[in-house]
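Troubleshooting log. The previous structure file for this entry was overwritten by mistake, so regenerating from the original sequence record. Sequence copied from the archived sheet and checked twice against the printout by T.R.
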Amino acid sequence: MQRACAAALVRKGKSIIHNPGISNDDKAALSIIKEMGCEWSIVNGQLLIDSTNAIIHSPFTTHHSPISINCGESGLSIRMFTPLVALSSSEITINGSGSLTTRPMNFFDEILPQLDVFIQSNQGKLPLVVKGPLQPKNITIDGSLSSQFLTGFLLAYAASNADGVSISVNNLKSKPYVDLTLKVMEDFGLNVPVNHNYEKFIFQSSIVNRQLSIVNYTVESDWSGGAFLLVAGAVAAQNGIVVKGLDIQSTQADKKIIEALQDCGCKISIRDNEIEISNPPSGARGKAFHFNATDCPDLFPPLVALASYCEGTTVIEGVSRLAHKESDRGLTLQEEFKKLGVEIELQDDLMMIKGGNGLKGATVHSRHDHRIAMACAVAALRAEGNTAIEEANAINKSYPNFYEHLQKLGASVNHL
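Regenerated output below.
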């Protein structure tokens, strides 16, 4: 949804977005493109966006009134929209809220000046002040923290008709999300660069983009949120649940949750547009598994909930990807699941979850992190006694109707 909003901003014209998202992150993206001059409305459940008068399409027009955008708590929005904002010659302030104000933004301090963009940050933190217009050049960026920075520059280079220049990337993480970005760019008729093994992306004018009068784009269902429902079925549904709408052919990294569910012995059946899943047969416990989450770090919370009910010690790789999330998720998962009776050990880039010993209901805290709240809720489904989640509304960041969906599956959820 956020990528679709950014792509609709980048292409000049009208776009129709089907299945638009309703989370706080989605609302932040809509707020940003509105401040950038897009007009949008929702008609009959469809999102209509017109970017004809967006300021990035007239980069040298000076706007005398101050322009500011707020990314809320969305890490993707701040990393993706900052290069797009930098396409304008107007001075624009970029801010955020909550945990986003503490996340490092030194990346932009280093890269944007190379592209003739003025940037001022708060010692590598928000707020940022940028003033372009961005001039595409050959650059090399660090992809070890997140692929989201690359997503922003790919879109910015496409918007500025980059020709004969390249973006080189060292140590790129979460490559499937780059695939998703490139697919969205293609669907919106943007100039898609040549991908050289995720190490260099070359823009060429000879690659003619499709000039579409109106773009129709359908937002995929979210595997990151769907993973929690699938794990809920795996740990608590003896007779099975059915989750509809997840595309098994998706480029989203978090569809790898299927591999973990299969490895731990769950009963799983994948059919057209729906997945049926239940916990292991005859009341048997699932078995511990080994999983590499380096390219899909958002799966750590549902994987921990799953591993808590698996016999033995589950090992998950990729802990280094967790430090700069809404919370330091490695430590947060360790501390909150300890309250539920689950021992988690962190060792370098590994997380070891000792499962199969039963969980006890407790009072836990989301740490204002949407995925921690959802992980605790799923873990509570088979815990002995009730579990209370403080700051439970953190889920609104990505999945506002999560508790409602758990209730539809038969869980008892009470809002205090």
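The CA atoms of residues 322 and 328 lie 6 Å apart. Archived copy saved in two places this time.
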